[in-house]
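Please annotate this fold before class:
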Amino acid sequence: MSTQTNRLRELDFLRGIAIVLVIFRHKEIFHFLEQMGWIGVDLFFVLSGFLVSGLLFREYQKFGNIKPKLFLIRRGFKIYPIYYLTYLVYMLPRIILHKKDIANCFYDLVFVQNYFLGWGYAYAASWSLSVEEHFYFGLALLLWFIFNKKIIQFNLNPGATKITLFEKIIFSILIITLLLRVYNNIYLPEQNVKNMTMTHLRIDSLLFGVLISYWFHFRRETLTKIYSKYQRVFLITSFLLLSFTPFFEPLETFFIMTIGFSMLYIAFGIILIHFLVSPNINQQLNTIFSKRIVDFVSKIGYCSYSIYVIHTFVIYCESFLRIENKFLGFTLVFVGSIVAGFVMTYTIEDYFLKIRNKLFPNRVL
C-alpha cells in the first residue's frame, strides 16, 4: 500500500481532475469538454463519500464508537465559512440591482435549494453542496445507530467474502435510488432539473463511495485480491461506462437521468479503487503526466472546494469583459478560479480549520 501522504496526493489528483471538469462544463473551450464536464460533480460525490465515511470508519476502528456531533461540527468548520462568506459576494450584485429574493436566499442558506429551486439561487452549482450536506447528517446518523447503538452486526474480518448486512443495506439504497429516478423521470418529467439535483435521487453516488470506503477499511484484503486479479477487466469496464459522456446533455436524456448516473459512480468507483490498491500509483501518474503536472493538479484538488464555490463568480466577472476569443476567456476564468481558490483555501479556510482543530480536535490523528 502507498503511504498516507502519497495516497492523499493521489486522491487530491482525482479531486483536481473533478474541479477541472466542472470548469470545462461552465466555461466552454472545446464543445466535447463542455458536454462531459458535468461528470466532475459525480466524481466529487464518489470521492466525498469515500473520504468522509473514512473519517468515521477510522474513528470506530480506534475507539469502538463515533461522536457524530464532533464529526458534524468539524464538517461545519470546513464547509460553512467559505460557503457563507462567498455567498455574500454572489449576492452583492443582486442587492445593488435590487433583484434579491429573500425566500430563495433562505433556501440556499439552509441547504434545501435542490428541493425548492432545483439549481441554487445565488449560484446554480450550490445544489451539489446541499446534497453533500444532507449526506453528512444522514451518514452520521446511520453510523451512530450501527456503531454506537449496535443495531446490526458489523463485520471486521478483512478476509471475509460473504456479503454483510451493512453491504446489503447500501446495495438496497443504491437500487431504490435508481428506481426512484426512473419513476420521477417517467411520471414527473416537468421537474427535470430537480430530478437531477434532489438528494434522494443522487445520494447513490456518495453511498457508493461509502461502500468502497467500507471495503478499504474493513475488507481490504478481499478488495485488493479481487481488483488485482481482474484489474484489466475493471479498467476497461470503467472506460466503457464513461464513454457516452461527451455526446449527451444529461437533462435532455432519459438514459443519463436514470441508469447513466449509476454507470458514472460505478466507473469512478473503479478508478478510485485502482488509485487505492495500486502500490505504485504515484509513479504511474508521474510517468503519464510528469511529476510537475501531477503535483499541480493535486494542489488544485486540495483547494477544490474553494475553487468550486468561487469559479462561477469568476465566470460572471469575466462575462463583463466581452472577450470574443474563447481560448482567452477560458484561460482567464481558469487562472482566476484557481488563484482565487488557492487564496481562499490558504487564508479563510486555513484560518477556520486552525480554530476547529484547537477547539474540536480530531479523535483520530
